[in-house]
């Protein structure tokens, strides 16, 4: 049984997200705050001892918590698991401590939550070691994209996703909480998240792409998402027209998902799509895959698919190895947690892991924004640069509103 902790250990205290976030930052505790697509509830989990592992951990035996994983599975950045020592829901306003959470730390946290409206909000964590990044300009990005097109035409690979950063000073009056709230309002159908981990850093994002989910009804889901164009002026998908390039690009991601099912010898899945979906100011093509784990005896499907899928050809390329090599050799920066994955694990609603896209990393005085574009043999490097600009708008808009 879990215990809801309120004033002086009583149950039933009512707190705001601001109080909870401020208390975690003040005590330099790791916190993840999120809202699932099309939901109103904002949830948070705080961990007294984040765990960092070199490989993707197994989902099924995991306690409830939040996973934050990098793009490179064998790189220098850890796969971080925040066990939910403390949980918060905006629907009840309650703080719940896990039965095995250290009691003194839990009650200290509750005390700090109660005082957290007083005084200035604390600074957010920045990485212990600065990450390697230098913004590419149009010229250097399109040069790398041209090399990619040549490599694809020479049949070294079929597709590669090239990305870049854009660093911008934080606006006066910037607040983490306000930025998160603006994202909630602007992107109702995205997974909106804020992750702040001492020594690791602080990331904010509104991603449209689910990587793996297993819900309360034991239904496994994943998607093949790719192809991008600006949202039509009428704000609907009814008149969307896709070019052959995008259709093929998305088709490659779809084939990749199917190849993962095949590796597991799983045939009992349903596939719907591709359909046009809206993500902020953009539209994508998406195919939805589902497996009912009540009908198929595959208890570890979540972990197995996660390990096979990541990094998908929506963020890496096809085949996986040469495209990943191309990215590491030519992108010119460390993606860190951009295009990794994140989300709640074994929460009351289930496990929901999303690809970390349309995101920014917050440093002391600046934000590093990330965006990529899928390059195929038909790509125009200039159009791909424009596409990354469109994708960056999601985060720039949030920063421009302060
Ligand atoms: C790599 C990104 O988007 C991926 C997801 C959807 C569409 C994509 C595309 O059209 O290239 C990308 O594969 C990003 O937003 O940084």
TrEMBL record:
Source species, domain of life: Bacteria
Ranges for domain Chorismate-utilising enzyme C-terminal: 138-391
Record-linked InterPro entries: ADC_synthase, Chorismate_C
Pfam families tied to this protein: Chorismate_bind
PANTHER family found in the cross-reference section: ISOCHORISMATE SYNTHASE ENTC
Protein name: Isochorismate synthase
Species annotation: Pontibacter indicus
